[in-house]
Protein 1
Amino acid sequence: MASTDLREFISALERAGELRRVTSEVDPILEITEITDRVSKAGGPALLFEHVKGASMPVLINAFGSPTRMNLALQVASPGDLAAELQEVLDLKAPEGLLGKLRMLPKLQDLAGAFPKLVKDGPCKEVVVRDNPSLAGIPVLQCRPADAGRHITFPLVFTQDPETGVPNCGAYRMQVFDERTTGMHWHVQKGGGAHRRADIPRESYRGENHPAADANDLAGHAGPRGSGLSPGGAPRGPSPPPEGHAPFASP
């Protein structure tokens, strides 16, 4: 069964011998990524840094850094299995007779479970900070010496086309300027960047800001189950559907 949140995935990695815990204190400025770079290039495991300097939560890194761990996240023997399942759906034909309809029921049941569901609440709302929200305590990394600062490197950024209302989900690096401000690194011709460019006239003439939301899995910070971002859903940002198609349910 697929992991429903990051905590379950960490446990699954540990059971599979694909996780190494680091108990020594490490610095989020360059040190974590330097260690990870060496481990990753050597074909090593995912790393869980349990004590990060200046942070109130651990850091999981290199979680998807091997075919084995990707397969574990997606709950498949190989990524090709997902393509085969999709092809089966595309090849479905109207059944003939009662027996044909009965044989198709399991496939239809699996297909029905694949569609997203709109809900009013979820694990991401177990902890809600309304007064003075802050990035302080979140272990945002500086990855390279030449980087301009610390970046949130794998956020899922949600935007909406101002004309069509079609949503988009993309993974865009966010540079942290201070405890309450980040800068978005996105290509103007893609997804969220295109939405931002299309919304410039609205901002200029109406004084409105372009809305955007960011989802990160802060398993040690956002309640018992983390923020609710599943390992299988995390690749959604860097693997989007064609432009103009919603990657998730929208109201």
Protein 2
Amino acid sequence: MDSSLKDLKGNSAWNTKRAMRDQCVELLCGLDQAIALTLPQVQMRTAKQGFQVASASRLTPEFFGQSKANPGLISPGTERLLEYALYERYLPGRDNQEAPWRYLVHRQVPLCNVISSDGWGEIDLLGVTHFGHPVVVELKKEKSEDTPLHALLEAACYAISLKANWGILYKEIVDNYSSHDLRLIPEEPKAIPLVIAAPELFWTNWNRWSTSGVGVPSDTQIAFGRLCAGFAERNMPVARVSLSHAGWDEKSPLSSDGVSINDVVSFFPGWPT
């Protein structure tokens, strides 16, 4: 493997249905090298840049897309509405037992330190486990053309960057949620769980026995599960979350009460303690 996880994430050839099984096998064989090549590509944010934890909670869907340069409202996409509804539902103070995180503390976490993102992008949702570990949540809408492998590559890249930037981000999260006992670990986390969250239809599209899963090679799910196990062995345990937003027609606002978790499938022995 002569490519980093970040390079693979940005390679469209690594986001196709028919190639996913073989690519999972290939990546598992060269996973250590791919991770090692990703580390020097991480961009370090400064304390002055910060991570905008406080501002994330103030931006509501009605204001997505507003700017002085382009006045007027831009209708937010399905994934962004789903993201905000989840973020609202699992804010600190609204404890839960159903999700693989205790709280969600940030959304759209920036990972680049320059105007050009250089492919780093943002973490969709940042969670905290009951043991105080950060959780990277990669969110996909039900009609997304991204493969689960591509979502995993995104989440893993972001976890590597998050670990390197943890000192600054930790302080910002603690300061913003000072009235809540997050039990957040101050030291660089040894393990960062990865969660791929999407509506059930997204996952059905990757079931080769379904009509929409035509073209998915046999044993693709097995190969993906083995790759997830490989990430778990390298302190990035993976979980798949199936979301429900029953009754939502995507034309009206999605409230935090309208989204729920149907199922959680773990590809690892257990969360870090």
Protein 3
Amino acid sequence: MVRQRVWEKVETRARFHTIKEGTKTVEAMGTNAERACLGLDVLKDTITATHLGPGGKTLRTWTVPTTRRSVLALAKGAAPAAPIVLEASTAGKAVAFVLKEAGRELHMAAPNKVALIAKAPVKTDERDSAALAHLYQAGFLPECYVPTPEIDRLRTLVRARADLGFKMTRIKNQCHALVTRNLLDEEMAGVSDWFGVGGIRKLVALPLPEEEKGHLALYLQQPTILADQEETLHAELARAAEERAEVRLLMTIPGVDYYSALATRPSRSWRRSGTFVASRRRPNSARWPVWSQGRTTVGRR
């Protein structure tokens, strides 16, 4: 292992600007160059694989469908000691989980940093898979954190819960826009909460054209659906929280419920990687109101 000075640059209007400079520990040059490896360009429907031998010589390039059976066959058919390199994506993460189950050595690249290092004028699946393998052999692969299936499941739950708030905000904005385009804002003057019991009664009583009344009725039906989804998600989040001691510990802090605790729970490798279950920053639950019982509430138990 050696200490190597590195620079991170971005390209803006055909000029490169240094945005970060520092040092990092990298393997000595030549260590990976003598290792055969497999680069994968994972898409929704297909996986393009490139097998590089020692010294960067392309031995084989082939394409398989993106299915569990094909991924397991690829893991079994590749050289046992050859590491597998792929880029982070929705499909890439799913393939990575299957490869880990098969016991393969895995290296996942950060897409934004790969684009800066291996920018090519012509992009094909074969070129992309080969570029990932070459970056690994050269010791310049910008790797990213690969979550465990458990952490990925928790992230999915937290994102789904947050998405309910975004949907509710969109519905409210559509209702406000409907009233404004019919020049009826004066009719709603003095109503602090348009979506409380009194506000909804006033919305329904507005002198709207029949077509707009139909639109408003559709908008006001959606919060009920969101409330049912919220109840289901909250039950799943509560079960996940009760199963984890670190989440229960966070919930002892006043004002922190199971949703906030799960969203901010650090992974076991947090001290090394700085990664969290949902994000690197604690979400502001006030931005994610959820419709419940005819009023807007913020995640409280």
